[in-house]
Amino acid sequence: MKIKPNLYRINYINQNQVYELYAKQIVTDSLLGFMSISGILFDLSEGVVIDPIEEQLKHEFKDVEVLHIPLAHVLKVEEVKHKKSCKIKPLKPNAVVTPLSNQPGPQQ
């Protein structure tokens, strides 16, 4: 039986926008208070631009090996079976996002 590798959908806030990315690996213990994301996946289509948002994200993260996101900006992480298009959505002006009160690790 072939074991399928993990695939994660990560939603996080970046400059009043919600980014939705897909990645092969996420780790929360490499940098205190950050989620490290590696193996970011994009559609492999060459030539015709099918999804301009996906192309924008592909260009933005083209040289990124590991993306470190503050845990307070992470909205949701899901383990999924299939990749869909990556997205950028505006953060709704009346959205209530409650940051974590305490970050992991020693408190000062």
Automatic annotation (TrEMBL):
Superkingdom of the source species: Bacteria
InterPro entries linked: DUF1820
Protein name from the UniProt record: DUF1820 family protein
